[in-house]
């Protein structure tokens, strides 16, 4: 899809007066910076999509009063973080008592955990808000942030593709997808990782556009004044959106270490964007200038800020005396006697232990899945299943079941997988930067898992990169609709096809709703929804 700028003549202005505006417009076109004001229609559409997402994620959120899947770890950890500042040990088999309201039976020793604390702090915040004795309190943070991610993706796609229609398509797809729904309705860590990575991507998009606008203005001004450009080019100046991205990426890492891959990919991406922009305006030393003026500051803005943010997430552990391995430096005989340094050494040694746990995790699990099958949803993760006989929990036939299967809408994921391949081809053939931007989150969120196929890993990790799969699908669907300057019949045909496909996708989501939300179904109805043998 291409954006168009409308140029209108100003009869009262002379050609000399028009020259600055024309030159600036020329640079802006070359740098692909276009004004796309947020109209009332855009806001109304975005709010409608957000409202749909919120309803789907909040409807019956507390209907299952049990800890679901890995909630058994993270909800209890989140609660003890709010009480003591660190995760605490619990007695054997504590879930039944916890679910019944006995929430203070945790022990007086810190718990060994292998994930950073931020995601659990967010879960704990929900228990403070709505009560730890309520399933709503366990899950409200996931539901609200999962809905916010839909709104973010709507505006991110709109900015990336310069199209309100594209933004609404992306938002709708994310709002109704099963994997996004299941994660937003349960308290695991991965959806928080996704939210912060997506927000960082959006911040870098804004930073990119603002830098290009500044570069266009500077290039036009120097051209008109016949000034000699600085040796290394124009400085990018203060870039608050890039700093914000660093904070958000640090928060992603503070949820799960796999956020590090997003730091690496997005850090490289933002520098490549700057290099391309400098080269486009014919800056003579664009590579050197980009390294000195962009790459080095970007390292400190993104990586340095992310590191400081990550360390800040451990504030509760630093402030405690009972956190697990809190005094490991002294225990290992490597303490320096200077408290702050010893705390950092203890944290480093603790991280080394956790890393060894992760790389050695190869125990068997019935829902472990090779990452090669994640995109096609070949082995989704079973989060919850209960079987009921006639008369139990509303079962009106001989046998019923209530199931929460973390499977994405098959049409979204299967078409999205094909769209990824198309996006790669178009990115190579047409050198389309939008394509590579849409692929960036897959490079950071998906490809690294192909290096760890010997570990026990699961399809539900795919939530971290799902927004970029949807961006690829949106990119291809936008091409099907056609460019704004395409013939009316062409756009009408494309729009009807895409509109019909979206209706079908929504219908498929409605069909799968019961197995995404734990509704009681008779066995026949349940089997109709198990489209692949590997889903059972």
From TrEMBL:
The protein's topology relative to the membrane is:
Multi-pass membrane protein
Enzyme Commission code(s) on record = 2.4.1.-
GO molecular function terms attached to this record? dolichyl-phosphate-mannose-protein mannosyltransferase activity
- One Gene Ontology cellular component: endomembrane system
Chief site of localization: membrane
- Quote the subcellular location field of this record: Cell membrane; Endomembrane system
Q: Which residue ranges does the record assign to the ArnT-like N-terminal domain?
A: 48-297
Taking every annotated instance into account, which residue ranges of this chain make up the domain Protein O-mannosyl-transferase C-terminal four TM?
A: 347-535
What domain of life does the UniProt record list for this protein's source? Bacteria
Pfam families given in the database record: PMT (PF02366), PMT_4TMC (PF16192)
The residue ranges crossing the membrane are 38-59, 136-157, 164-182, 288-311, 411-429, 436-452, 458-480, 492-516
The pathway it acts in is: Protein modification; protein glycosylation
UniProt similarity note: Belongs to the glycosyltransferase 39 family.
Its biological purpose: Protein O-mannosyltransferase that catalyzes the transfer of a single mannose residue from a polyprenol phospho-mannosyl lipidic donor to the hydroxyl group of selected serine and threonine residues in acceptor proteins.
Protein name per the record:
Polyprenol-phosphate-mannose--protein mannosyltransferase
What phylogenetic lineage does the species belong to?
Bacteria, Bacillati, Actinomycetota, Actinomycetes, Micrococcales
């Amino acid at each position: 899809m291409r954006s168009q700028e409308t140029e209108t003549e100003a009869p009262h202005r002379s050609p000399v007066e028009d020259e600055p505006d024309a030159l600036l417009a020329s640079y802006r076109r070359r740098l692909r910076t276009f004004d796309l004001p947020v109209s009332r229609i855009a806001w109304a559409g975005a709010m409608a999509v957000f409202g749909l997402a919120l309803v789907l994620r909040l409807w019956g959120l507390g209907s299952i009063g049990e800890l679901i899947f890995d909630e058994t770890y993270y909800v209890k950890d989140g609660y003890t973080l709010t009480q003591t500042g660190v995760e605490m040990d619990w007695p054997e088999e504590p879930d039944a008592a916890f679910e019944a309201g006995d929430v203070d039976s945790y022990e007086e020793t810190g718990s060994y955990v292998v994930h950073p604390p931020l995601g659990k702090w967010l879960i704990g915040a929900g228990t403070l808000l709505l009560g730890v004795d309520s399933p709503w309190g366990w899950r409200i943070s996931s539901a609200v942030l999962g809905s916010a991610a839909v709104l973010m993706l709507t505006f991110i796609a709109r900015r990336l593709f310069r199209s309100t229609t594209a933004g609404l398509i992306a938002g709708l797809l994310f709002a109704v997808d099963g994997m996004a729904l299941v994660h937003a309705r349960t308290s695991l860590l991965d959806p928080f990782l996704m939210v912060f990575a997506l927000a960082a991507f959006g911040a870098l998009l804004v930073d990119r556009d603002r830098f290009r606008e500044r570069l266009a203005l500077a290039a036009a001004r120097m051209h008109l004044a016949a000034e000699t450009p600085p040796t290394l080019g124009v400085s990018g100046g203060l870039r608050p959106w890039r700093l914000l991205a660093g904070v958000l990426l640090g928060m992603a890492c503070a949820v799960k270490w796999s956020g590090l891959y997003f730091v690496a990919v997005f850090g490289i991406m933002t520098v490549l964007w700057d290099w391309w922009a400098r080269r486009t305006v014919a800056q003579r030393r664009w590579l050197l200038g980009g390294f000195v003026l962009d790459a080095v500051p970007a390292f400190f803005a993104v990586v340095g800020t992310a590191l400081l943010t990550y360390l800040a997430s451990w504030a509760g552990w630093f402030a405690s005396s009972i956190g697990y391995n809190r005094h490991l430096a002294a225990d290992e005989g490597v303490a320096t006697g200077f408290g702050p340094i010893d705390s950092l050494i203890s944290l480093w040694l603790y991280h080394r232990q956790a890393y060894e746990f992760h790389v050695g995790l190869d125990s068997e699990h019935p829902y472990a899945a090779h990452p090669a099958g994640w995109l096609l949803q070949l082995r989704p993760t079973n989060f919850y299943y209960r079987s009921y006989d006639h008369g139990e929990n509303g079962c009106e036939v001989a046998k019923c079941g209530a199931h929460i299967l973390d499977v994405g809408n098959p049409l979204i994921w299967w078409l999205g997988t094909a769209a990824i391949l198309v996006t790669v081809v178009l990115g190579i053939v047409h050198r389309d930067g939008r394509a590579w931007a849409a692929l960036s989150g897959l490079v950071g969120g998906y490809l690294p898992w192909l290096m760890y196929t010997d570990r026990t890993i699961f399809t539900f990790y795919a939530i971290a990169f799902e927004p970029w799969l949807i961006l690829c699908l949106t990119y291809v669907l936008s091409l099907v609709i056609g460019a704004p300057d395409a013939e009316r019949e062409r756009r009408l045909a494309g729009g009807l096809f895409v509109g019909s496909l979206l209706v079908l996708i929504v219908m498929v989501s409605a069909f799968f709703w019961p197995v995404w939300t734990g509704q009681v179904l008779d066995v026949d109805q349940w089997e109709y929804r198990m489209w692949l043998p590997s889903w059972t």
